[in-house]
Amino acid sequence: MKKMLFVINPRSGREQIHSRILEILDLFSGAGYQIQVHVTQMPKDATRIVREYGEEKDLVVCSGGDGTINEVIGGMMEMEVPPVLGYIPAGSTNDYASSLQIPKSMMEAAQTVLSGTPYPIDIGRFCGDRHFIYIAAFGAFTEVSYQTPQDKKNILGHQAYVLEGVKSLAALKTYPMRVEWDDQVLEEEFVFGMVTNTISVGGFKGLVTQSVALNDGAFEVLLIRKPRTPLDLSSIISYMFLREEPNEHVFKFRAERLKLISKAPVDWVLDGEFGGSRTEVEIVNLKERMRILTKGEKVERSGEKC
Q: What is d(CA 241, CA 80) in angstroms, rounded to the nearest whole number?
């Protein structure tokens, strides 16, 4: 009999897994799986359980938000040959599920786990000891994802991030930083930066406008330097959300690896979870390091190229 580890975050999203869990388990059991279910109890619990039991399974499935899948990936990356991953999204934004075209319906997503095609995906390695599946970011708004209370996320979804973020505009913090990639160097005072492997960020697809493929071995990088006038800030917001013409405050490029150096510690967020405070960060793309079950369609989007 095939073996499955099913990791569930019961508090993700609007807690809809509660009303579907028996139906999903019946579906998996009927497909011939012997299922070990683990309901997460605390932060990093998913990483621990996957590390302990995942390697002996034929399939690891997780249900939760972006933070949950990040924890599961953390455990799987410690295996020499990780099993295939199945994902049933149940979070507030589910950026990565959107990029993979995994259905929003929990039952349809569960069916995709059984009938889908293993699709190779890139994984980001952060400072040698952490990993992310779709975004590593710092600066304005990034603290919102891990400081916004879970109950507010459940009620408002990705709008909660926007509402909380607007409060911090008046105290926009800058980060003097040196960025190195390929043979290039950029030194600026930034207010925001993100290294991504996704089509959607925070529920907004317009934030990533380059051509995106989730297994091409490269990240999409976006850095925003300090606005010096209200008009500068307005032009940045227009560019980010309304896709107006590029301006001098926004830097975009692609990179397989990059290093970011700052004098003072900078808080980082990995897939919506706190990633630590660092003065030096090295980010490396691990090409096609994991396989995840999708509907078998081509997972990429054509858009504006760098």
A: 41
